[in-house]
Predict the 3D structure of the following.
Amino acid sequence: MVLEKIRYILLSVTMAAIVSLAPSWLHAKDTLKIGGAGSTLGTMKLLADAFEKRNPGIAVEVFPSLGSYGGIKAVAKGAVDIGLSGRPLTEEEQKHDIEISEYAKSPFVLVVDNDATVSDISTRDIIEIFSGKKTEWPDGTRVRPVLRPETESDWLVLMQLSPEMAQAMKTGLAKDGMLIAVTNQETMDMIAKVPGALAVSTGAQIRSEKRSVKTLSLNGVAPSARNVANGSYPFFKSSYIVVSRKSSPRVKKFLEFVGSPTGRSILEKAGNLPVER
């Protein structure tokens, strides 16, 4: 509950900052504002840079992480032109005059520091680590799982793997003294700083942000976009774009770019599996 209050306060402050800048942006008619899920930001910045080079009359501003909830809310309130989400719209969010489309999938990965001796992890290991039954890596190092708020999309992906996994996640969040990261970027920072840390991320975030971390194979299968495509690695996270139903021409132009051969190539190089839109 305390974590959710902190998250709400941070989101409110960020939203207020964005809205406060709106008058200057309104005068800059060709500025495209994008914000939302942290796991999508690295890839989106690469797309934005390439789009600006091909469209010098349109500036693209990609904001720091608002989370999926914040990105969706920002579009609904008109604070950003394009929202980024790691999940579909909720029933309540569908009441707004907005629409959502999936544009990519990326392997959902378990991450440790580069110096960690472990290279593979099983679903059973994850359950036992987050529930507190397994407290050490094979070399004796203490395992330090990095948790996320229960409503975050990364956490939802894990909880949907099985009822037992969902219970392990809830047990972990209820324990005192656990490491908790509010954003995807903070999660990766903790991996680099905390010995024995274990966290979840996406292959796209790690590659697009050039994070120096180790991704673990899961149940003996490497987490690659190719393995997601062929079905051998069934754990992935979808990325969505959220826009107003009354989108401006520049928004539509950007969406066309994302789905173009150039845009799809950028997605693939960043560790994504493009989705036909």
